[in-house]
Amino acid sequence: MAKQPMLKFVQVERDMPEKRTAHVRTEDFDEIYQEFAAVKAEEQSSRCSQCGVPYCQSHCPLHNNIPDWLRLTATGRLEEAYATSQATNTFPEICGRICPQDRLCEGNCVIEQSGHGTVTIGAVEKYITDTAWEKGWVKANAPLAERSESVGIIGAGPGGLAAADMLRKAGVQVTVYDRYDRAGGLLTYGIPGFKLEKDVVMRRNQLLADGGVTFVMNCNIGEDIAFEEIRAKHDAVIIATGVYKSRDLDMPGSGATGIVKAIDFLTVANKASNFGDSIAEFEDGTLNADGKKVVVIGGGDTAMDCVRTSIRQGATSVKCLYRRDRANMPGSQRETQNAEEEGVVFEWLSAPKAFTDTDGKVSGVMVQKMRLGQPDASGRQAPELIEGADYLEEADLVIKALGFSPEDLPTLWNQPELPVTRWGTIKAQHLTGATEMDGVYAVGDIVRGASLVVWAIKDGRDCAEAILEKFNAKGAVAAE
């Protein structure tokens, strides 16, 4: 009888790729996890129970065929595993690195619920695709036939690029417009290299370009080209700009220098440390934590990116203020643990009240202590002020990581009829991304608000499918 390749979760314990020690990894911006070896990847994949109702798949926004590619990996059929993974996910090697698996696939693994420890889905997904790149299995799109239809995509982030990939595979002519000098959006400039090394993103960008996607970079809509001009040039337009307007703090002392936005800090850090660009704000210390006492305000994944970047830049101390406790923070628990290992100090139940300065330069944060009271509208316990428990936290650099909201696109683009919600996000149909403007679609964070990369990828793929259906329907009518 053939040996059973799966269902080994009872005999084989969960095991993650080895993590570089904190004192080593904080010396650079390289990813912190080592690669799985082939034997280890097969072993961990073999722990999958191949359950009848795969909750890992149903809780993945892309509904990736996880049990299938785990079985293929366990049996050494890696090229098939890659093809299965790529069939539902435009960027599996990116999702394997940055998805919060603990809240999605792995967090809903059946064997995890039974106490055996989840399958290491994310690490295997990363291994499969990295191997595919090494072996030359990843190819540029080669549509069977070119189509005459053209789509313009505004925004080269994960949602826009996922749509570009799907449309180009079908032979559609695709042009992507973006304000930055490199494609990738937050994958390139928002997420630090120690979570997502930039060559991983750049090779995907190059693959799209090799497949015939046209990129127009350093292009600001409303300044370098009008939105109406883009509409006139293309049969359909997808808005995939993301949300980049930083939420702010309006309190005494907030105008002092040395109080900066997370997106500015991370963008400059990525340009300087990962691409070697010469950036004035980095070199003059404005957006550089080297030798400074750093305080980061916020508890999400962006805050975790800021504290861990500050450590690597040589900050003398890094503290993170969050108004709730550890159990209620929105960021990944895995990232919090990594940050603590690297020397970050978390001040839970702490919120800023004001900033102090010396000659206009920030010198500290007046912190007020909180306690958790009754649940708010979201169901989480609301923080309440503890009177008389304020204290001063010294700081040379304060980074505000309070989340993001949409820019005012109707005004920026001179498109008052562009339909938006009361939050400023674009109104678009569920699944298709279609807006009330003919031929205009929207996907990702500009529709959802700040969300996960995997949701943006799903939106981009769904939208591309809807556009192709519309093009095909028009073609069928014309043929009649």
UniProtKB/TrEMBL annotation:
The residue ranges of the Dihydroprymidine dehydrogenase domain are 26-136
Domain FAD/NAD(P)-binding intervals: 151-460
Q: Which Pfam families match?
A: Fer4_20, Pyr_redox_2
Keywords, A to Z, come to: 4Fe-4S, Iron, Iron-sulfur, Metal-binding, Oxidoreductase
Q: Which domain of life is it from?
A: Bacteria
In terms of PANTHER family, this protein maps to:
GLUTAMATE SYNTHASE [NADPH] SMALL CHAIN, GLUTAMATE SYNTHASE [NADPH] SMALL CHAIN-RELATED
- InterPro entries on file: DPD_II (IPR028261), FAD/NAD-bd_sf (IPR036188), FAD/NAD-binding_dom (IPR023753), GltD-like (IPR006006), Helical_ferredxn (IPR009051)
Q: GO MF terms on file?
A: 4 iron, 4 sulfur cluster binding; metal ion binding; oxidoreductase activity
Would you tell me the protein name for this molecule?
Answer: Glutamate synthase (NADPH) small subunit
